[in-house]
Amino acid sequence: MPKLRLILIVLLSLSASVGGAFLAQSLRSKKPTPPADDTELPTVPAFHLTERSGKSVTNADLTGKVWIASFVFTRCSGTCPAVAATLARLQAELADVPDVRLVTFTIDPDRDTPEELKKYAERYRADPNRWLFLTGPEKEIHALANEGFMMLAKKRPDGKPGDEFDHSTFIVLVDKAGRIHGHFDGIPPQRSTDTEAYEASVKRLKDRVRELAKD
């Protein structure tokens, strides 16, 4: 598993640093293939963070829920609004599935206080009972992204305001036991020729969410 995680992190890092056109298209067009045995799936590490409401939230609080994770920061001037819009879309289109949660982690917790996250959540009409926004120690959240979710979250030493971090734009599907079932595109494609494949990917994600919610 460590070797697999390393390979995925390297690939996702390349995706973020060079635009990821080829990699993103590859992941968009191919349905994730789950292991034959669910026990082989990686598990989300333990975390203890603060929600925009001020309440503490741990990974254990999500046990029994199917959830979709994302990593953004509120000052982001690039892809984060598109990722948040995708989550808002999923919130609406999965409203009939009660045991589903959306969980957004900020990778800029020094600025993204619970108050800032609350304002950000309001922009997307996030249901406080179904869509959580979490903040906490930067080191913990970045480790959670990089090592736990096999994503990329890294501060840019020379980043300009609104562009201070390199980060993945994938959203991650997690089952009721905290096992990761796959990474999906968090932003729509720029080219109209890719729209059909993207919508097929969104449909696969929603179908999989519904399947896992029944288990």
UniProtKB/TrEMBL annotation:
Protein name stated in the entry: SCO family protein
Q: Which domain of life is it from?
A: Bacteria
Q: Which residues form the signal peptide?
A: 1-23
**Family indicated by similarity:** Belongs to the SCO1/2 family.
Highest classification ranks of the organism: Bacteria, Pseudomonadati, Planctomycetota, Planctomycetia, Gemmatales
A Pfam family cross-referenced in the UniProt record is SCO1-SenC
Annotated source species: Limnoglobus roseus
Q: Where does Cu cation bind?
A: C76, C80, H167
Q: List the disulfide bonds.
A: C76-C80
Q: Which PROSITE patterns match?
A: THIOREDOXIN_2 (PS51352)
